[in-house]
Amino acid sequence: MMDWTDRHCRYLHRQLTSRALLFTEMVTSAALVHGDAERLLGYNDSEHPVAVQLGGSDPIELAQAVRICDRFGYDEINLNVGCPSDRVQSGQFGACLMGVPGLVAQCLVAMADVTDTPITVKCRIGIDDQDIEADLDRFADAVLPTGIEALYVHARKAWLKGLSPKENRDIPPLNYDRVYRLKQRLGDFPVMINGGIKSLDECETHLRHTDGVMLGRAAYHDPMILGVTDAKIFGEKRAPATLDDIETAMTAYAEIDLGKGTRLNQITRHMLGLANGLPGARRFRQILSVEACKPGAGPEVIAAAFAQIDRSAGVRVA
């Protein structure tokens, strides 16, 4: 979710669910050690619980990055060993690290040595010509002894040779059963499943076999799915947030953040799916996409967009 789950996105999603663990977009260890940590890691306290996701392959540099993350008080630090983008391949991190589980283990040991914050790993079921049975087990056996507290497993291979990052999200077939078998093999160790999951009904099915479910594109493009997550998945009795609640919260948020130099479209670009399936959704998206980009655009644009929605029709949840 690089370039997607930034702090504005996470603030919106936290208005919809108080229980789901939110993840940052992946931040490279090199960028943290040599760049502007506040810009890369700053977030709103209301985002908790929130995990920071790191990319890297140098144990010493990753340890330095973890120390920096700890200054910001994240609830979890996740090492990404699943992203197939061109950037991670050229930098020798992300999914290509599944081919060198020993190096991943060294990185995790170095990270754990400098923090008490839970360390977790996100991976694929394999890469390229790997055997998804033997090689995934070999990977798990290498990283579990380092003291990590969970594995998040995207139930697709990543084809680093021949497929683009976009194609890697759709073309390799999903194999949820392989993740289930990994969970069975690892017993009480927490295994979370990810990849192509589109609804809370699907989440409930996966939760019969795994310890958790990670949503990516489904939650981003149809964020109202998160609005009923606390009730359906976590058993909360409180009423879900309404569109009125979200409008109020995001308007107030924009008023504050615009004063810090943020442009309105940096906030509203994450809100386009809020009205999916409702009368007025097209005009809602148009206002947030076009008017929010204009110089001087302010919170009144958010109010104008929400005014287009016929809220009496209810809210569709995938």
UniProtKB/TrEMBL annotation:
Its cofactor is FMN. Coiled coil: none annotated. The keyword tRNA processing applies. Residues 1-289 form the DUS-like FMN-binding domain. The record marks 80, 166, 169, 282, 285 as: Interacts with tRNA. Gene3D superfamilies: 1.20.120.1460, Aldolase class I. It is an enzyme of class 1 (oxidoreductase). Its EC number is 1.3.1.91. The keyword Transcription regulation does not apply. It catalyses: 5,6-dihydrouridine(20) in tRNA + NADP(+) = uridine(20) in tRNA + NADPH + H(+); 5,6-dihydrouridine(20a) in tRNA + NAD(+) = uridine(20a) in tRNA + NADH + H(+); 5,6-dihydrouridine(20) in tRNA + NAD(+) = uridine(20) in tRNA + NADH + H(+); 5,6-dihydrouridine(20a) in tRNA + NADP(+) = uridine(20a) in tRNA + NADPH + H(+). The active site is at 83 (proton donor). Pfam families: Dus. InterPro entries: Aldolase_TIM (IPR013785), DUS-like_FMN-bd (IPR035587), DUS_fam (IPR001269), DusA (IPR004653), tRNA_hU_synthase_CS (IPR018517). It comes from the Bacteria. FMN binds at residues 53, 122, 154, 194-196, 216-217. Keywords: Flavoprotein, FMN, NADP, Oxidoreductase, RNA-binding, tRNA processing, tRNA-binding. GO terms for molecular function: tRNA-dihydrouridine20 synthase activity. Catalyzes the synthesis of 5,6-dihydrouridine (D), a modified base found in the D-loop of most tRNAs, via the reduction of the C5-C6 double bond in target uridines. Specifically modifies U20 and U20a in tRNAs. NCBIfam families: PRK11815.1, yjbN. Belongs to the dus family. Belongs to the Dus family. DusA subfamily. This is tRNA-dihydrouridine(20/20a) synthase. It comes from Pelagibacterium nitratireducens. The lineage of its organism: Bacteria, Pseudomonadati, Pseudomonadota, Alphaproteobacteria, Hyphomicrobiales.
